[in-house]
Prior knowledge:
- The strands form two sheets. The chain has a four-stranded antiparallel β-sheet with strand order 3-4-6-5, with helices on one face. A two-stranded antiparallel sheet has the order 1-2.
- A hairpin with a 2-residue loop joins β3 and β4 (64-69).
- The protein has four helices and six strands, in the order αββββαββαα.
- It folds into two domains: 2-25 and 106-183, Topoisomerase I, Chain A, domain 4 (Orthogonal Bundle), CATH 1.10.132.20; 34-101, Gyrase A, domain 2 (2-Layer Sandwich).
- It is of the alpha+beta class.
- The mean pLDDT is 91.
Amino acid sequence: MLNEIYSECETKMKSSIDHMLRDFKTLRTGKVTISVLDNVKIDYYGTMTALDQVGSVIATDATTIVINPWEKNLLSTIDSAISKANIGVNPNNDGVQIKLFFPAMTVEQRKESVKQMKGMGEHAKISIRNDRKNANDKIKKLEKDKLITADESKVAQDVIQKTTDKHASNIEQILKDKEVEILKV
Length: 185
């Protein structure tokens, strides 16, 4: 009973960290990655579709991304979707492919990326605290229903708190490492 609560809580907390790490991929660091386009969707025959599903998306070097759509009639749609996404560059459409030339990041842009990253980290911490609250509520319900004793409830809540602390410190370490990576020129 308690072991199920522990493992469910642990799983949810790990998924919160995984979600944060996925969000980090949309941040711009010194070297451009195609993941900056993850949130860009185009209307492909009535369905909102990711760019990598309608063509090849390749980072050719540290500052350039090239998009080759499989259907050339999608060029203008992709062009406008990238412009609307406000990712910090204007698309260059040559009629065959779209090239995105990212300038070197300024100190201000790096600081803005760190700010966004810290916001993502705070969301992950809030999610972990919510997972802790849910687990503690389940434990308290077991105690109220007389399925566990008050002492067992206290021990179980301590275990949940230790799990929470472990994941919160893990997030802090990830944030510190990522900040160093982003600010490194």
